[in-house]
Amino acid sequence: QVLDGAGLDVDFHLLSPKGETLVFDERKSDGVHTVETEDGDYMFCFDNTFSTISEKVIFFELILDNMGEDGQDQEDWKKYVTGTDLLDMKLEDILESINSVKTRLSKSVQIQTLLRAFEARDRNIQESNFDRVNFWSMVNLGVMVVVSAVQVYMLKSLFEDKRKSRT
Q1: Which three-class secondary structure state does DSSP give residue 11?
Q2: pLDDT by residue (tens digit) across 137-154?
Q3: Phi and psi (nearest 5°) for 53?
Q4: Helix locations, 10-90, DSSP H
Q5: 8: which of 2, 26, 110, 133 fits an S-S bond (Cβ 3.0–4.6 Å)?
Q6: Which chain positions lie within coiled-coil regions (predicted)?
């Protein structure tokens, strides 16, 4: 998401480890892309060459799902469990509830981060508009002062006696 800069747009490229273009967006202000990955190094680029005069502030978030999850880590805790038949709630149910809470918490953190990015972009737009309004208000004030001075001068010149007085 482009937070600040002229036009609020930027080009985006995403290349696979094989060098294939997976995503190419031209002059977009924001976007969400989901890609099925394979092993290797991916390359992404935010390109602002079409607008080299103005700099841009970019917010991006890279979310990696299922990173480092292997079945062994999930099953290790079961070897320490003894006497689970005595409990009303099984440990599998507790683990499922904890994982559900963890997933929902991570989703809420992602949404809050995205909302902060929207707020930052909107604040930058508001500050730019504030500066623009102040500048044109000062120009308007200057024009009004000049016009009033010219009117006073013109009014004074109407009442001046243009005849030479004889002494």
Answers
A1: strand
A2: 999 999 999 999 999 999
A3: -75, -40
A4: 71-75
A5: 2
A6: none
Give the strand pairing for 2-4 and 57-58.
antiparallel
Residue range 123-136, pLDDT digits in tens: 988 998 999 999 99
Largest CA distance in the chain: 128
CA 11 – CA 50 distance, rounded (Å): 9
Tokens representing 167 are: 């002494």
Q: Where do the structural domains in the chain lie, given as residue ranges?
A: 1-64, 102-166
The answer to whether the CB of 60 falls within 8 A of the CB of 12 is: no
Q: Is the pTM of this model over 0.85?
A: no
Q: Is 142 helix (H, G, I), strand (E, B) or coil?
A: helix
Measure the CA–CA gap between 3 and 121, rounded to whole angstroms.
Answer: 4
